[in-house]
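Example with several molecule types.
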Amino acid sequence: MSDLYDDTAAEREMATHPQAEARKGFFTDTTLCIGCKACEVACKEWNQLPADGYSFTGHSYDNTGELNGSTWRHVAFVEQLRNGATPQEDEQQVVRADAGRWLMESDVCKHCTHAACLDVCPTGALVRTEFGTVFVQQDVCNGCGYCVPACPFGVIDKREYDGHAGKCTLCYDRLQDGETPSCAKACPTESIQYGDLEELRTRADARLEKLQREGRYTDASLYLRDTDNGIGGAGAFFLLLDKPEVYGLPPDPFDTTRDLGRLWKHAAYAALALVGVTALAAVGTRR
Amino acid sequence: MSTTDGRPVDAAETAPTTASYYGRPIVKPHVWRWYIPLYFWIGGTAGAAAVECVCARMRGAHALATVEKRAALLGVLVAPPLLIADLGVKLRFVNMLRVFKLTSPMSVGSWILTGFGGAIAASTLAELLGWERTSRALEVVAAGFGPPLAVYTAVLVADTATPAWHEAGDTLPFVFAASGMASAGAIGAAFAPPAESRSARQLMIGGAIALLAAGRAMDNQLGELLSEPYRIGKGGSLRRASATCALAGIVIGTLGRKNRTATRFAAACVAAAGMIERFAVTAAGTQSAEDPKYTVESQRARMQARD
Amino acid sequence: MPGLGTTLGRGGATTFMQDLQNSDCILIMGSNMAENHPVGFQWVMEARERGAEVIHVDPRFTRTSAVATRHVKIRPGSDIAFLGGIVNYIITHERWFHDYVVNYTNAPVIIDPRYRDTEDLGGLFSGFDAKQDAYDLASWQYEDLDMTGSAGRRMGSAVSGSKIVTHELSPEEKAAEDRPLEHGEPPHVDVTLQHPRCVFQLLKKHYARYTPEMVERICGTPKEQFLAVAEALCANSGRERTSAMCYALGWTHHTEGAQTIRTAAMIQLLLGNIGRPGSGILALRGHASIQGSTDIPTLYELLPGYIPMPEEGMTDLGKFLHETTAKGGFWGHMDAYTISLLKAWYGEHATAENEWCFGHLPRINGDHSIYPAMMGMLQGTVKGFFCIGENPAVGSANASLHRRAMANLDWLVVRDLFEIESAAFWYDSPEIETGKLRTADIKTEIFLLPAADHLQKDGSFTNTQRLLQWHHKAVEPNGDARSELWFYYHLGKRIREKLLASSDPKDRAINELTWNYPELGALADPDASAVLREINGWGADGKALDTYTKLKADGSTVSGCWIYCGVFTGEQNLAARRKPGSEQSWVAPEWGWAWPANRRQLYNRASADPDGKPWSERKRYVWWDAEKKEWTGYDVPDFVKDKPPDYVPPDGAKAEKALDGRSPFIMQGDGKGWLFVPDGLVDGPLPTHYEPEESPVDNALYAQQANPVRERWPSANNPYHPSGSAPGASVFPYVMTSYRLTEHHTAGGMSRTLPHLAELQPEMFCEVSPALAAERGLVHGAWATIVSARSAIEARVLVTDRVPDYQIQGQTVRVVGLPYHWGNRGISVGDSANDLWSISADPNVHIQETKAATCDVIAGRRPRGTALSALVNEYRRRAGLPAEE
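Resulting C-alpha cells for the full complex:
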C-alpha cells in the first residue's frame, strides 16, 4: 500500500501521461494582495459559474466565505488591529504602522502532489492532467460526493444545481491554449503568480529571502512549498504572514491515502473477527 | 433581493482568534444524505447475514439460513436504489464500475457490492430453479464477499479528512462489523423458528456486546478531543441512543431468551442499536468537520509530537 | 480641478501612474487608491517593492492602508490643517528646495499692499462682502500687475451666483490690468524671499499657527505620526529624491475641496516635486472617462479645452477675450483656441464678420450646476431633464430631494443599461414607501431609453492620467440600445429637421451647426473616429493638425478641443495605439495618446535646473541639448522645444513668447507655479483650514467657522445641523463620512445588478469603532439606523478596529463610515447613504460635501412609512430646526 501511495504522487502520474509537460502551478504572495477580488470575479466569469448567495457575513470584507463547487477563488480577510484594549479603555485608538495589519489572501485549490480527492474518486472522474494539475471531468463525475470530506483543505464540493463535484481547474482550457489562468491574469498586483512549479518555488524562496533581508514582513513563511509534508507539496502554494489556521487552512494537512494501507489492514482484522464471532455464536447449538 | 435576516453575528465567530478563521470549518463535512448511513447498516447487515447463512447451512439449520439469505437479498435489492438516490447525477451510477481503483474504498466497495449482490441474486435464482447445489455454492461465494461488504464502509468513512473518522480508522471497522453481526443475528433471532434461532440470538447478543466494546475502543483511539463529537451534540445523542438500545437488547435478549416476544423485542433493540450507531458515526463526523478546533488542535498536537 | 489648474496651469494629474514606480515616497491622502484604483495601484506596489515609503493618511484603515508602509489617521474634513502643518514644517525647518522655489514658483512675487490675510481678519481674507458671502479678489493681485488665472473663475464679471464681487476699476487697477510682464517678470519681486509682502513671507505668516501641536488638536493625528509624514516627504525630496501625492474624492468632496488640492500642490512646489520623475500630483479620477468629461465638458461653465463659457454681459468676442486671455503662457492664445472651436461647430457659417458665431453660444448667468438645477425642478422652473449615465436618485447629496425634484418635472429622459433608481422612483422609491410621493400624483413623463455599453460602441476614454484610449465596438447593441453618440446625433438631426423652416434668429444656433458625420452600418452609427478627427482639428489644407501651436485666430483652422489637438496626427487615430509596454520605454508614449501633445509628465521642464541640466543623474527626465539647441529626454518636453534656458522675452512679447527660459509652467500667465493664487479661486489665494458645513467642533484656528464663500441652499428640505458649540450640535454627535468599495461602482447601477459583484458585497453596511458600538448598543452583524436632519437610513453593522476614534480639541469624536453604493433597484438593494447628506458645495466647482458631516446612530432597523418622517422630525426639533415640509 505504501507503494500505492507513492504511485499517486503527481510526478509519477505525470510520468505516465502521454502529453506531460512541465508541472504548472500558482504561487500566491499575500504581501502583494490588495483584496480586490478580481480573481474571484475573473474565475467565475471565465468558468461561467453562478453567484452562490447574497449574505452579509460580518466577517470583515469576506462575504464569499469559502471555496466550494461554484466558488473557486476565495479572498480571506483577517483584521489584526486590536491593541487588546476594551472599548471602554481604548479611548484613544492609535493605529500604529507596526501594530496593525489586515491580512488578505486569495485561496484556491492546492492541486496537491498527493491529492486525496483524486485518490478516493470511485469513477475516475478526477484525473491528473498533463500539466500536473488535478481536474474533475464533468462528463464522468456522478456526484457521489466522496471527494468532499476527503480533501484536507475543504476545497472541492458537490453542487446542488447540477449534482457534480467542482473545483478549480487551473483553467485547464486556457493552459491548453498556452494562456494564463484567469485569476492570475486579472490580479493587478501579481499577488497570484502562475508558471512552472519549480520556477515558482525558486522564485518564492528568493522572495522570502529578500523580505527577510530587508526586515519586512518578518512573519512571512511559505506554506506548502516544500515536498516533505502530508500532501507532498502543493501545485498552488502560498506566502503567508500568520499561522495557516488564521486563514482557515490546516496546519498539517495530509492525503488520507497515506494511511489507507493501515485502514485496510484493520478492516481485514475486523472481517476475520466477524467470521470468527459468527462461527463462535454457533457453539453449543448443534442439534 | 438581498437577504435581510439581520442575524447578529456571534462575537466568537467574528473575532478571529489565533486558531481559526471566524470559526469556519477547515475541512468540509460529508454531503451524503440519510440514504448513506442507512446503506452502511443495510449493507453491513446483509454481508453478515450471508456469513450467518452459511454457518447455519453447515449445521443444518436451513430455516435460519433461509431467513438470513432472504435478509441478504432484501438488503441487496434496497441498497443500490439507496446509493443511486444520493448521487448527484443518478443516471451515471454505472460509472461506479468504470474503474477498479485500490485507493478508493468506494470503488473497491462498489465491486464488492456488485459481487455480493450478484452472488446472492444468482443463488436465489438457482434456488427458485431448484438447483440446490449451485445455490449452496453461490451462498458460499456470497459469504466470501460478506465480511468485506460489512467492513469496507468503515474504510470508506475513515479514508477522509474528517477528524472523528480518520483518527478512528483502526477501530471503526470493528464497530461496523459488530453492528452488522448484531443486526444479522437479530434478524435471525426474530424470524427464524426458535428451534434454530439460538445461534442467531447468541450472535445478536455477542454482536451487541462487541458493538459496545468496539465503541469504547474507538473512543480510546480517538482520545479526549476527537471523541468529543461522540459525546456532545447530535453525535452524542445518537451514540447514547445506540448504546441504550444495545444494552436493552442484551439484557432483554438474555433474560427473555425463552420468550419469543421478548426475543423479538430484543432483536428490534439490537437492530436499532446497529442502525443508530451508523447515524451516530455520520453525525459525529459532521460535527468534527464543522468545528475547526478538531482539525487544528489534533494537527498541532501531531506536529508537536514530531518535533 | 481648478486647485491644480490655478496653481500649475492645467486642471489634471501632473504625472502618470507608471511614473509612481520612480517615487521615493508616495503620500496617498484623500484617496483609498488600492480600493478604487486597484489596477493603477500596481505602480504604487512597484514603488514599495523598490523601497519607497508608501504613506496612507485616511480616517480609516483601509485596503490601501493594509499594504502601505504607514497608515496615519486623520479626522474627516481636517485635511487643510494637516497639509498646512506640512507647509509650516517645511518652512520652519528650512526644508524647501530653494533653487526650485526661487526660480520656478511665484514665491518671490510681491503682492498688493491692500492684501490682508486670515491671520489679520479672524479667518477671512481682504475683500469679503458679508452681504453676498463673496470676495472681491482685487486686493489679492500681484502689486501693480493684474494676472488672470489659468483655471476656475477667470472672468472679472460677477453674474448672479458667481460667488465673486467686482467693482469699477480705479485708474491704478486699470493700469495693472493692461501692464504686461517685463521680460517675463512681474514688476515687484524679491528673490531673497525676505520682503514682508512677498508670497513666501505671506505663506509663512498664513501657516504660522499650523504647528504639529495644532495638527494633533484639529486632526486628531498623534503628533509623532504627523511629524513622521512631514519628515518622510522632506527627506525624500530635493535633487536626488522625489515624492508623489495621490488624491481623489477624499479631498474634492468638501466645501473647501479645491483649496485642499491646492495645499498639496503648494507642498509639491515647495519641495520641488512637480515635473520630475517620481514626483507630481496624481489626481485620481474615478470613472473611466471622467477626465474626458471635463476636457470635452459636460460642465455648464466650460467649453472644450477649459475655455470658459461666456457670461451674461459678454456681448462680443472682444470683451470675452479681453477678460480671459493671459498675459503670458499658452492661455495667451485664447483667441486661436476659441475661434478654432467655433469653426468646428459652425463651419462655413462662422466668419470674421459675425465674430465666428460667438453670439450663438449660450451665456451663463448664475450657477447652473446640478444642485441649483435640481432646486429649479422643485420650484418648477426647470421642466425637463436628460439624465444620461447618471443616477442622482442615489448618487447626489440629499438624494431624497432629487427624487422628489424629478417627480416635479414635466418630462425626464433616462438613458442607462438598467432601470435605475432615477428611472423608477415614480413607483419604487423610499418616497413611495413613506407616502411622500404617490405614483398617481406624479405627472412626469418618463422616457427610459436603453443605452449601449462600452463594448457595443466605438469611442474613447480619457483616464486619470490624461490618456485617451480608444475602445472598439466588439458586438452590436441589443435591441433598441444605442450609444450616447448615436442618441445625441440623431436627436440633433430630428430637432434640426423640425427647425429647418424657422426664421427665429435663436434657432440659427442649432441650424448652423455642422452636423454631418458619416453614418455607419445598419444602425446609422455616427463615425466616432470622424468625431475624434474633428476634435483634433485640421488646417487650411484640410489635413489633420499635429499640434495646437498651429491653431490660428484667423478662422483658417478648426479644432473641437485644442488640448486634444495632435491625437489624429498624420490622419492616424493615435488614441487607438496599443504597442505593448515591453516593446517601448517605460514611459510607453506609443500606447494611446495623452493630452497635451502626448506629454505624459507635465511641467517636465522643471526636471532640469534653470540652466537646463537635470537636477541629478538619478532624476534625469527632460533636459536641454545645447548642441541640437532643443529640449529632449524621455518624454515630450512640456516647453517650447527650441526655447533656450537663457531666453529673455523682448518687450511686447505675448503668450508663450512672454515667458522666459526658466518658466516651466507654460499655461500660467507668468510661467510660474503659483504658491499664492491671485485669481481663479473665489475663496482665497491661500488654502485655509475651515470646518465642514457640519462639524462636531469649533474652528480651532479662526473665528470664521466654515468656508465663508461655500455654496449653501438652506431650506426646510435642506436644513444644516448646528456645528461645534452651537446649541443643538450635540444632537448629531458623530462624524459621518461616505466612500466607495472596490466591489461596487458608484450608484450601483453597474454592480448591484450583476450577480458576481452583488454577492461580494451584498448589503449596505456601516463601519463603526467598538467604542461607538458600545455607546449606542450596536450589535455586530445586526442593524443600525443612521439619522440626519434630512433622513434616516438603515445599514448592517460592521464593528471594526479599522475605524479609529479621535481626540479633537479635548473632545472625543467618533466616526460612522458609510459606503454610498446602495439604492432600492437591482439584485443587492439597500438604503442610500446620500439620503443623509445636506447639499453644500465648494464654490469653485460646485462639488457637494459628502466626506464630512455629522449624524446620530441608533440600534435596530429604521422605521417604515410615516414613522420615518416622525423620527427625522423629532431629531430636527431637538436640534432646533424646522420640521420637514
